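Fill in residues.
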């Protein structure tokens, strides 16, 4: 994992990211979590030897490595695999999520990525980073604090052609205000944040003036006043803090400073898109839904529905309104006594 961080620092020294290397190093030194299996995973990565580096990023299945090589044993050491599908050597990894379906919904509704520099918050193992490169992005930086996902990304990169996809083990709140990305993605993150407006403002600070935000998150039906705050868990997830309607979410984006806000897709997550597989053997969507009514979660809330919204950062930053000082009440004037006419001599 250290090798990937070093590669990022070396290969972005001539980009707009160079001035942010020092604050990123500081954040990595204080915020990166240690993992109890790091030594085991490092040893597993060291066993990957291949004279052939190959990759294909422009198809639904991201493929890396010599198509005749067998990496199945080492891949099994990095379970669970959640985002894909992936093909590593001759092994097809049927991941929990059909992330290609999400990418199809996204890619048809956003501005072209050709030649752009993009940021993906909560990118997991980097599947969408590779798809962004496949769509023509010049540089794709991912952020995800989950150490396992960083190791999975490292494994994929060891077998790929040299490319400009990078992953740092951080959270968005640890990042400096880059202000230079053409497109910023936040997919499946917002509902995990205790302060959603703060997250939207972070995203605004990462985006260059005129740049695009692509936001995907859980939503519920309703008007601009509709908001679901789970009493405890939602679909067995303890870290879901709020689920707004699309109308409320559009309003929140505008209040955070974005313009040209619109909802471009709403999709009920299906049992075919998210499911347990050989490569992800824990519980999945089928276990989170009411067994007698698939339109509800086991807690009785509406089943997961996800919306994609796009928005733009203004070309010129809005000036904050200056608060007016409250007027001080004037003391009532004391009525003057009428002047007494003087007798003229």
């Amino acid at each position: 994992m250290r090798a990937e961080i070093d590669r990022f620092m070396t290969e972005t020294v001539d980009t707009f990211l160079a001035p942010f290397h020092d604050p990123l190093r500081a954040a990595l030194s204080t915020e990166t979590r240690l993992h109890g299996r790091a030594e085991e995973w490092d040893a597993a990565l060291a066993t990957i030897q291949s004279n052939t580096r190959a990759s294909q990023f422009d198809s639904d299945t991201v493929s890396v490595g010599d198509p005749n090589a067998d990496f199945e044993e080492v891949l099994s050491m990095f379970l669970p695999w959640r985002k894909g599908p992936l093909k590593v050597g001759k092994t097809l990894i049927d991941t929990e999520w059909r992330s290609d379906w999400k990418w199809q919904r996204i890619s048809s509704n956003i501005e072209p990525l050709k030649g752009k520099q993009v940021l993906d918050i909560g990118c997991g193992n980097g599947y969408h980073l590779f798809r962004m490169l496949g769509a023509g992005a010049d540089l794709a930086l991912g952020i995800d604090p989950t150490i396992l996902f960083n190791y999975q990304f490292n494994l994929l990169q060891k077998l790929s052609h040299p490319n400009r996809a990078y992953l740092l083990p951080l959270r968005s709140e640890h990042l400096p205000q880059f202000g230079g990305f053409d497109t910023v993605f936040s997919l499946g993150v917002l509902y995990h944040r205790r302060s959603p407006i703060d997250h939207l403002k972070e995203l605004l600070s990462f985006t260059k003036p005129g740049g695009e935000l692509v936001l995907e998150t859980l939503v519920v039906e309703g008007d601009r006043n509709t908001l679901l705050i789970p009493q405890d868990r939602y679909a067995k997830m303890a870290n879901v803090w709020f689920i707004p309607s699309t109308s409320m979410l559009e309003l929140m984006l505008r209040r955070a400073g974005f313009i040209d806000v619109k909802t471009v897709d709403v999709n009920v997550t299906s049992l075919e898109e998210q499911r347990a597989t050989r490569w992800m053997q824990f519980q999945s969507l089928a276990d989170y839904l009411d067994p007698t009514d698939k339109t509800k979660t086991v807690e009785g809330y509406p089943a997961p529905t996800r919306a994609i919204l796009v928005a733009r950062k203004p070309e010129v930053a809005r000036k904050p309104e200056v608060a007016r000082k409250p007027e001080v009440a004037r003391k009532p004037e004391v009525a003057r006594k009428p002047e007494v006419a003087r007798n003229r001599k």
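The mean pLDDT is 93.
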